Amino acid sequence: MVTVEKLSKRYGSLCAVSEVDFEVGKGEIVGLLGPNGAGKSTTMKMLAGYLPPTSGRATIAGYDVFSQSLQARRRIGYMPENVPLYPDMRVREFLSYRAALKGVPGRRLRERTADVIELCGLQEVATRIIGRLSKGYRQRVGLADAMSHEPDLLILDEPTIGLDPNQIRAVRGMIRNLRRHHTILISTHILPEVEMLCSKVVILKNGRVQAAGTPAELRAGHGQAGLVEFDAVVPDPLAAAALLRADSSIQSVTHRQDGAWTVFSIVPKPAHDPRENLFRTAVENHWRVREISRPEASLEHVFAELTGGEDWER
Ligand SMILES: Nc1ncnc2c1ncn2[C@@H]1O[C@H](COP(=O)(O)OP(=O)(O)OP(=O)(O)O)[C@@H](O)[C@H]1O
Ligand SMILES: [Mg+2]
Question: What integer best gives the mean pLDDT of the chain?
Answer without folding.
Answer: 90
